[in-house]
Amino acid sequence: MSNQIALAENYSSFKGEIEYEIKDTRGRVLYRYNEPNLIKIFAKEQLAHRIVHDKVWDPSGSAGSGEWVDSGIDPNNEMAAKYILLGASFDEDGLPLSDADERFYKVDPATGVSVPRRPDVGASDEGDLINPIPISEPLRPLKKIESIYFEPSYQPPDSPLLQSNVRAMNNVVVMETTIRQEEYNGFGTTNSDFFTITEIALAGGAVLDSDIGACECEPKRLFLQGVDAAKDEQIIATANGTPTVTIDPSVSTSDVNRIVEGDQIFLVGRADTDESYDTIGQVNPYYLVTTKAVGGRDVTLDRTPVDSDGNPIEGSIGIYRTTLRLFSHRILAIPFKKSEDFVITIRWRINFN
Q1: How far is Cα 91 from Cα 96, in angstroms, rounded to an integer?
Q2: With the C-alpha atoms ordered 98, 20, 213, 270, is the resulting torsion angle positive or negative?
Q3: Parallel, antiparallel, or unpaired for β 15-24 and 29-38?
Q4: So what's the pLDDT on residue 10?
Q5: DSSP-based three-state secondary structure for 10
Q6: Rounded CA separation 349/170 (Å)
Q7: What is the CATH architecture assignment of 224-322?
Q8: What residues does each domain of the chain span?
Q9: pLDDT for 68-85, tens place per residue?
Q10: Is the alpha carbon torsion for 208, 214, 218, 222 positive or negative?
Q11: What is the dihedral angle through the alpha carbons of 200, 32, 196, 79, rounded to the nearest 10 degrees?
Q12: If you ran DSSP here, which 8-state letter would residue 220 be given?
């Protein structure tokens, strides 16, 4: 029994919830649906640390009238949750597949209805959304979190941490965004072209404004940083069949120091032109940087880069730093189809109990 209680308490500490609310053009709620979801523990840790402000109030500052001063705490803006990524059920021609899409759903033999597939290591080759909607501002935008607020949860009386007459605590954070009428209506303009949204992810990453342009690319591409951070140009490096890759001497010192210990890099085949993202047959082209000295050109990864056959990758390569972090990912039990008649609000709740 004690093990069951411990398991239940552990589960609750990871608990999150997705809610989507469909409204008509007059703002009337037509449908509201909630699905529970787990939140990665590192995401909760990051969110908890990010709540801390990077300034503190100094009452003696500004000649005694008080002022905000640096707290000395780095809130790490890149790791703050700020995006809600969306995936939809469509094929390579842009034709919608709805819940018949076998990447997302399978037929339950007992009931004969489609049920969501459980994401696992094979859900996506690169640990990303299964079928992300391409970015094409403004009709297919990168959805930013537009509102953050807290809701109370209620504790049982006589908890050792609370007085018996205290029940409510503001320990549920809600992150919200709205898909407007003109957004995510599909690759075409007719009802048959409208997206059926099937997956939602909560993500952090570098701060991106609304000047993305019509890149027609997957969201993860926007978070890759090469030379000068904002460019697509690769950082040139050499792989030698070991976990250590070496940044080329031609790369400037500022770009060498762009990659630091703890970063995640995206390793691709070497190309002399921009816009090259050839993963050279790797099962997963993302690697964690475990060791990297400031100013040093040797980058030690969490594993040796290999192709899908297990052969070590050697020779000239290109690497990018990636800032995208998926905190949580959910295939919807009930997908929803977007059209110009609906406004859809998505809320992600995280319980800090």
Answers
A1: 7
A2: negative
A3: antiparallel
A4: 42
A5: helix
A6: 12
A7: Beta Barrel (2.40)
A8: 2-205+325-351, 224-322
A9: 888 776 666 677 788 999
A10: negative
A11: -20
A12: G
